[in-house]
Amino acid sequence: MAKIAGLNDKEQRLFNSLAGGKEKSIRDLKRVFQDDAKAFVKENYQKGTWDESDVDAQAQSFVRNSIRRLIRDGWVEGPAQNEKLARGTYRLSKQGEAKVEKGVTETLSFTTRQERKAATLKRREEKKAQAKAERAKLKAKGKKAAPKKAVKAKAKAAPKKVAKKAAPVKKVAKAKAAPKKAAPVKKVDAKAEATKKVEEAKKKAAQAQAQEKAREAASRASAAAQAE
Fold it and tell me: Which CATH number fits domain 9-106: 2.40.50, 1.10.3470, 3.10.620, 1.10.10?
C-alpha cells in the first residue's frame, strides 16, 4: 500500500495488514508486532524477569494503540462502529475502502496537525513583527527598549524594604494593693454576758406578769359591769 501521510510506522503497517479487506482479530494483528514486542521487552525488562506472555501483552498493546487513529480517521471499523463485527475484530470501513479506491494518501488528522502547525508558526511570526514594530517606534523617539535580562537584573538588585519592627510595649508594673488588716477579735466577757441574759429574762418575766394583771383587771371590770 502507498504511504499514508500522517500515520506513524506501526499505524501504517497495521493499515497494510487490513487493506486486503478481510476481517482480522487482535490475535491475527498481534503477529504484525511480534518482533517489535520482543525487542521492546528485552530492552525494557530486566534479564530473566520476562517470558512470552509479556511479549504477547506488549504486541496487543501496540495493536490497540495503533488502531485508534485508523478508527478515528475513518479508515478502519471495529465492534463499536459496526455491531455485526465480533468482539476484538477489525476491518476496513466503507469509508476506508473508498479512500483506498480513490488513492487518498493523507489521513484526516495529518491535515489537522498541519493546520495547527501553520497556525502556530503564523502566531510566532506575528509576535516577531509586532516586537520589531515596537522597537522601530522607540528608536524613532530616540529611546531604546531595555533588554529583558537587564530589567530582570535591575529587579533583582533592588533591595527589599524591610518593615520596621514596632517598639516593644513596656509593661507597667501595677502597684500591689496593701493587704487588708483583719478586724480585731472582740473578747467576750462571760460574766457580763451572763448578767445581761439574766436581766433580759427578768424583764421578760415582769412584762408577762404585768400583762397577766392587766387581763385580770379587765376581767373583773367586765364582771362588775354585768352585775349592775
Answer: 1.10.10
